[in-house]
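Suppose you are handed a protein chain with no further information: no name, no annotation, nothing but its sequence. What can you learn? This example shows the usual starting point.
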Amino acid sequence: MNVQWIDSHCHLDAPEFAHDRLEVLQRAQAQGVAACVMPAVQAKDFEALRQFARSTGQPYALGIHPLYVPQAQVSDLALLEQHLQSALSLNEEGAPSDPHCVALGEIGLDFWVPSLCEPAMREKQEFFYNAQLKLAKIYKLPVILHVRKSADALLKGLRRCQVQGGIAHAFNGSLQQAQMLVDLGFALGFGGAMTYDRALQLRQLATSLPLEAIVLETDAPDIPPHWLYRTQSQRQSEGLPQGRNEPCELPQIGAVLARLRGTSVEHVAAVTWHNTRRVLPRLQSFHL
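A reasonable first move is to predict its three-dimensional structure. Written in structure tokens, the prediction is:
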């Protein structure tokens, strides 16, 4: 059986891939990863990401990540809207000019990093988050959410500005919060963090939720699965670098989910493939 996967969240435009970006994509495709959804993190990267996505036939999203909010300017929101207008405008055939744009993201709130929890910075985060939700609603795009110690605040914004669902990336909240997101049209992203034996709460969540609520991701180059992870002492004593995560690791991550749920890898691949295309409906125009 030909098993195919979609990496619902990876950052192939990151500096860690500067020297071998195309080779990384080819390795993923050789492992059956047919598409890699690439969310932007800051305005200055929008054009380069769009060009790379178009040249490789991969899907992308545009947004301002909460970790990049400290240096973001209000003018970045205007630039985001300009790029969205360019991507979604209709050509002579009545189709979007750039069908590779499938979502608005990565956006959200981060209340884990101490500097982002200062009152002024928290206020700035919420301003950019809510402004981008409004753009997603205007342009009828699903959103890709960054959720770190912030699920309740994110949910508050989603109730106030109801968007077309999307993905809660690297979700690690409560089952109740997960269900609220699912009820709002979101799927929950699971990746490398789920592969660690000690991730008991996350594994419980991954097995308690309906499989129809789950999509798979790598967040490459970040959140390496356990087989790539190196402790600080290992890196120092053995001279080993931290393992760089890649989208080619997705099938093995999917195999972990299949084992945890007591089902087949083929079933996990098929259902998560369908889920990703459901919550990011513009993916359905891709010939995958």
